[in-house]
Amino acid sequence: MPPFLRRAMRALLRFAPQRRLAWLAAIAAPVWLLPAPFGTYAGLTVSLLVVVAIAIDVLLLPAAAAVGVEREFSASVGIGDEIEGSYTVTNRTRRALQVELHDQLPPLVEGGVQSIALRVPGASAQRVGASLRGKARGTAPLGDVGVRVSTMLGLVSARYTFDTTDAVRVMPSLAGVRRYRLLAMQHRLDAMGIRVLRHKGQGQAFARLREYVRGDDPRHIDWKATSKKGKFITREFTVERSQTVITLVDAGRGMTQLSGEFSRFEHALSAALILTDVASSSGDRVGALVFDDEVRAFVPPQASKGALTLVRDAFIPVHATSREPDYASSFRFLAAHQKKRALVVFFTDVIDVRASQALLAHVTHSAARHLVLVVALRNDALFEAAAPCEAASTVQLFESAAAEEVIQAREAVLERMRRAGVVVLDVSPQTMTAGVVNRYLELKARGAL
C-alpha cells in the first residue's frame, strides 16, 4: 500500500462514531418509510443533512497538536504505599471539548484515572488528581496516555495517543521507617510496640578511674574508690565502638507464601529496612544479604548515612522464588565476607522438617563466630488450623492433628537452635517488626555482641 494511503487509513481510523450519532440515525431512518417519491427525497435530504453534520463535527475536532496531556507522578513508590499525582489535559482551541482520558498502567502499580470523562473549556487546562499504589517491586514504564475528544455536537470523536517516557520504580516500602522515626521524635515508640531501653553508662563503655574535677557528672563518682583514696574518684567512659549488624533474608520457596496481602518475603524486607535504619542511627555498621539457591544481593557492612538507601536499592530487584534455599553456600559467602564477629539477623521460614535440619546445622555452626538471631516467620494459617473450633468436622480434626504435628517438629528445631546459642524470635510476619527491633535493642543493651 502506498504511504499516502496508509496515512489516510490511519487518519480515518482515528475517528469513531458516538452514541449521539446512532440516535440521530435511528430518528432519521423512519423517513425512508414514507410513500415514494416523497419518502425517497425526504430520506436523501435527511441523510445529506446527517452527513453535513458529521462533516462539520469532524472539522470542529481539534488537531493532535491542539490537545495535550501531561502525567505527573513521583518516579518511585513503596510497595503497598500510595503516591499522589495528577493528569493535566490542555485544550489549545477556542472551543470547549469533551474529553475521555484513558490510562492503562503496568501490573506493578494500580490506580491512576484508568478512564474518566471531563469538559475542558477553550484555551484552558483541566487538572485531574489521582493516586498510584505499588503492588510489586520492579521498574516499568507507565505507558502511553490516550484521549478521546469530541465537540459539543458529540457525533464523532477523535482518538489521540500521547507517547510518554516516564517510568515508575516500585521499591520496598519506607513507610515503616518514616513512621518509626516520627514516633521516636515524638517519644511514642510504644505505639509501635517498641520498648525504649535505657543503656547503662548512657551507651558508653568504662575506660578508667581518675580524680574528680569540677564539671564531671556526680553520678559517675565511684564511692568505693573514693573511700579508699580519701578524695573524689570518678569513672571515665569512652564511647562504645560501633557494632556490625547484617540482615540475612531467605528468598526461598517458603517465603513466597502470602501473609495478608503480601508474601512473607515482603514483610521480611520491610522489617529488615526498619532494623537497618535503627541500627545505623545507633552508630552500628549495617549490611544485608539475600539468597535462595545463590546469593541474590549483598551490601557489605558500613557505617554511613546512605547505608539505608544502599540496602533498599539492593532489595528492589530481588524476589522470592520457588527454589530451595542453599544455606551452605550463603553461610560460606557470609563467612568469607564477614570475618569479624557480627549480629546476624536471619529472616527465614522454619516449617519443613527436612530443610530445617540443614538450616539448623549451618546456623549453629555460624553461631560459633557470630551472634545469630533467627527470626522464624510463622505460618499463621497453620497455627489457625491447629486450633479448630468446637464444632469442627472430621476433616478439620485431621487437619488440626497434621498441623499440630508440623508445629511440634518446628518447635523442636527452634529449641535445638536455642540450646546451641542461637537467639530465636518466633513471630508472625504481620507483627514481627516491633519484635525484631526490641530484640536488637535488648542485645545491644546487654552488650551481647
From TrEMBL:
Transmembrane segments: 21-38, 44-69
Record InterPro entries: DUF58, vWFA_dom_sf
Keyword Transmembrane found: yes
UniProt superkingdom: Bacteria
Domain DUF58, chain residue ranges per copy: 209-388
The keyword Cell inner membrane is annotated on this UniProt entry: no
Record keywords: Membrane, Transmembrane, Transmembrane helix
Protein name stated in the entry: DUF58 domain-containing protein
Gene source species: Gemmatimonas groenlandica
Species lineage: Bacteria, Pseudomonadati, Gemmatimonadota, Gemmatimonadia, Gemmatimonadales
